[in-house]
Design a protein that fits this description.
This protein is an all-alpha fold. It has one domain: Ferritin, core subunit, four-helix bundle (Ferritin). Helix content is about 65%, strand content about 0%. The protein has four helices and no strands. Helix 1 runs antiparallel to helix 2. The longest helix has 28 residues, at about 5-35. The chain is globular, with a radius of gyration of 15 Å. The chain starts with 5 loop residues before the first helix and ends in a 20-residue tail after the last helix.
Length: about 150
């Protein structure tokens, strides 16, 4: 298999770093406030996103960077504040992927990144908006949905 280009490697690193950060933020929210939705569901989805990216690293024989975000992420005063910040983070995540798509990428890398962006914008963002981050009030069970497809 051909070696990854510098641009492809950079795209993988940026995507993985962003997914690591998201997982770490949602994990911290759960540590601070308990098993609250949508954070428990979306943390699981972020773990699947990380695994999808790790699979690409393995496929191309590239060392997988460690997640250095745990313990270094912002903490929130309430679930409401975490939801609001998460709306902004998911929008930024979608924009990151738009930037990565401007690079020439192999079809398998492009497919994974598109799936991750779609999950972020079509599932995670609406769940955070429903939990009080811009789409109405918070209620029990909000954010519950089917799993992502990475």
């Amino acid at each position: 298999m051909d070696k990854l280009t510098a641009a492809e490697l950079n795209a993988l690193h940026e995507a993985l770093e962003d997914e690591y950060q998201a997982w770490s933020i949602y994990d911290q929210v759960i540590a601070d406030f308990g098993e609250v939705r949508p954070f428990i569901n979306i943390r699981e989805a972020e773990a699947r996103h990380i695994e999808a990216l790790r699979t690409l690293y393995i496929r191309y024989g590239v060392p997988i960077p460690e997640n250095n975000w745990p313990g270094k992420v912002e903490r929130y005063t309430s679930v409401q504040a975490a939801c609001e910040a998460s709306v902004a983070a998911e929008v930024a995540n979608g924009e990151l992927y738009d930037q990565l798509f401007k690079t020439e990428l192999r079809p398998d890398i492009l497919r994974v990144l598109r799936n991750l962006q779609q999950a972020s914008l079509e599932r995670h963002l609406p769940a955070f908006q429903r939990c009080g981050g811009g789409g109405g009030g918070r209620s029990q069970g909000m954010g519950q949905r089917g799993g992502d497809r990475c």
